[in-house]
Design brief:
Blueprint: H1 2-20, H2 27-56, H3 62-81, H4 83-86, E1 90-92, E2 98-100, H5 104-124, H6 131-153, H7 160-176, H8 191-204, E3 208-215, H9 218-245, E4 249-253, E5 256-261, H10 266-275, E6 281-285, E7 288-292, E8 296-303, H11 310-320, E9 331-333, H12 334-357, E10 361-369, E11 374-386, E12 390-392, H13 394-403, H14 407-425, E13 434-439, H15 441-444, H16 449-460, E14 467-472, H17 475-480, H18 482-493, E15 498-504, H19 510-516, E16 521-524, H20 526-532, H21 536-551, E17 555-558, H22 564-572, E18 577-578, H23 589-605
Parallel strand pairs: 8-9, 11-13, 13-14, 14-15, 15-16, 16-17, 17-18
Antiparallel strand pairs: 1-2, 3-5, 3-8, 4-5, 6-7, 10-11, 10-18, 11-12
């Protein structure tokens, strides 16, 4: 575009002069210079369309963009080249004056079409770009549009080329300025350049080897140096890697560098990287001089370029860079590494679609009350199914929802659905005292959660005693702190809501939760039960766990009951509730209503 703008500007100066003095030059020269100018100038719209297409990288429309560009070029070239005979675009009258033909405006129309399509594509993908890049593209479209309108009405004022050149300068600084792709004050390429390079390899369907470089014990180094020192250190490391590998070196993220090679000997590449760290790093932090001897941790990924996008590669690096020690010589294949990332994206898309279109399903698993031998409660379990992906279990989509900030929407959906179910089916009259609803650790961290749950229950007219909230003992829960959880339990206890501690004994400071959280019920994880059925020592642990929980005044639910033998042992040891496939799998709403309306008696006949 810059070259085209420069050439058209130079020829425009010539044509402006020849138009002013037509008698001095032969007619063929006047026509030729103007035709060359018009071809170059109108080619700008096509170049802009192809440039935007190359930046947005929408593979499905690339052929269409090429066809549109080719059609515009063919049309413009035909109209301009034939104009000495047809006089459609320009002509010289009998006095030698330069005139516009009847079809001159069609050239403007084709240019506007190209620019309009390009702007539409860019707006659709604007989130890929920063604000300065968006402004530069919009400035180009608006500036050229008004410049052409001005020149149509004021032909003697040649400003359109000047405007094109000016806005191309802004586009160049926004998209192609090398400083934008460098890390700090170094010549090492940064994360933006890394992503762009990966996308270029993918476009060219080129395979390559990637070395990922991290620094051993970096967390302690970061703690010692502070943010300023770490930034200085990252630039020093980048300088050395760049000095060794030139344009193949990239700063990807804090404590993460990469070297990309089309053809490379893995052992030789590893030794070259290690060579960069043989000399100590000397940093000046305040008035102190810090000397650091660093040990690189190097791992390799063999990348099939056509399969991996730039942003996907950064995720692969985040997922894999911590797995390997420097002694590992295994080269991971990108095909295998990309599968879980693509799967997560698909599941996230499915989650978003389900949130938007009420696509989740809530099932209910009956829980046996040992004292009454009836199913006085149940657990609400969310399900997700897609026509293409099939059934997606909560053990997969719940962590993805938590990671990507969708868990609050899912939690709200389940709670509202259960409240509506309780009200519409009057489950209390059918012997169901309460329904258990799972709370994610992320949800418990919401300050307004208690008021929100109270508001929904009140909206449906549900007695708060018909709701039991399950809190899962996880490492994440511990990181949020128990104060907010205790406050939530206290607020809802005052309304009559009961609480269960779910998955007790699964490995996350279970005793600590049991002591500090004022829960009413403890649900023993099925893994403890299953292990106990095969091991005498585990059975002793199970029995003593039940005894301990009973002694602190909590009721007990045991999950995963699959045989009568399991049930007999748990009843003999004083458990209050049993849940598992021995009695019923999770049921959709209609089947659950049928079950609690009398079908459960058929289940209990054999028990």
């Amino acid at each position: 575009m810059l070259i085209d703008s420069l050439l058209s500007s130079l020829i425009n100066i010539v044509t402006f002069y020849t138009i002013s003095f037509p008698e001095r030059y032969p007619m063929w020269f006047n026509y030729s210079s103007n035709m060359v100018y018009l071809i170059l100038y109108n080619f700008m719209g096509v170049l802009f369309l192809l440039y935007v297409d190359s930046k947005t990288k929408i593979g499905s429309i690339k052929k269409v963009m090429l066809l549109i560009g080719a059609a515009v070029i063919i049309y413009d070239a035909f109209m301009i080249v034939t104009t000495p005979f047809t006089k459609w675009i320009i002509y010289y009258d009998e006095n030698g004056r330069y005139c516009h033909g009847s079809m001159m405006n069609s050239l403007y129309v084709t240019a506007f079409i190209c620019v309009a399509i390009a702007i539409t594509i860019f707006i659709a993908k604007r989130k890929m770009f920063n604000h300065y890049q968006v402004l530069s593209i919009m400035f180009f479209a608006i500036g050229v549009f008004f410049a052409i309108l001005f020149q149509i009405h004021h032909r003697s004022h040649v400003i359109s080329n000047f405007v094109c050149t000016m806005v191309l300068f802004f586009i160049h600084t926004a998209f192609e300025n090398q400083a934008y792709y460098l890390h700090g004050d170094t010549l090492c390429y940064n994360r933006r350049a890394f992503i762009k390079t990966i996308d270029q390899y993918r476009y060219r369907k080129e395979n390559y080897l990637m070395a990922i470089i991290k620094i051993d014990d970096f967390e302690n180094i970061k703690h010692s140096l502070g943010r300023m020192g770490v930034d200085d250190l990252s630039e020093r490391i980048a300088e050395r890697i760049c000095r060794e590998f030139g344009k193949s070196a990239y700063y990807v993220d804090l404590n993460c560098f990469a070297v990309i090679k089309i053809v490379a000997n893995t052992h030789q590449l590893r030794e070259q990287i290690k060579e960069c760290f043989t000399t100590s790093f000397i940093l000046e932090i305040g008035d102190d001089e810090v000397i650091l001897d660093l040990e690189p941790v190097i791992s390799f990924i063999n990348v099939h370029g056509e399969n991996v996008e730039g942003y996907e590669m950064t995720t692969i690096i985040q997922n894999t860079a911590n797995r390997y020690s420097d002694s590992d010589y295994t080269i991971q294949e990108s095909d295998e590494l990309i599968k879980p990332i693509r799967r997560e994206k698909e599941v996230l898309r499915l989650i978003d679609n389900a949130i938007k279109n009420d696509g989740f399903m809530v099932y209910y698993q009956p829980i046996l009350d040992i004292r009454s031998r009836t199913f006085t409660c149940s657990e609400a379990l969310i399900r997700l199914k897609d026509e293409k992906m099939g059934f997606v279990g909560p053990e997969e989509f719940i962590p993805i929802a938590e990671k990507n900030g969708r868990i609050h929407d899912i939690g709200d959906y389940v709670f509202r659905t259960v409240c509506r179910f309780i009200k519409e089916n009057d489950v209390l009259s059918k012997g169901v005292n309460y329904i258990e609803i799972n709370l994610s650790p992320e949800q418990c961290n919401r300050m307004e959660l208690a008021n929100q749950l109270i508001g929904v229950a009140t909206e449906f007219g549900v007695d708060f005693r018909q709701i039991n909230l399950e809190i899962t003992e996880t490492a994440e829960m511990k990181s949020y702190g128990m104060e907010s959880v205790n406050e939530l339990i206290t607020n809802l206890h005052s309304k009559g809501v009961t609480f269960s501690l779910d998955d007790f004994g699964s490995g996350f400071a279970a005793i600590d939760y049991l002591i500090k959280l004022p829960v009413d019920i403890v649900k023993i994880d099925k893994g403890i039960l299953w292990q106990a059925m095969n091991d005498e020592a585990s059975m002793k642990i199970l029995k003593n766990t039940i005894r301990m929980i009973k002694e602190v005044g909590k009721k007990i639910v045991v999950e995963g009951i699959e045989t009568k033998e399991m049930a007999d042992i748990l009843i003999a040891n004083g458990c209050d509730y049993l849940q598992g496939y021995l009695f019923s799998k999770p049921l959709p709403p209609d089947a659950y209503i049928e079950f609690i309306s009398g079908k459960w008696e058929e289940v209990m006949i054999t028990y």
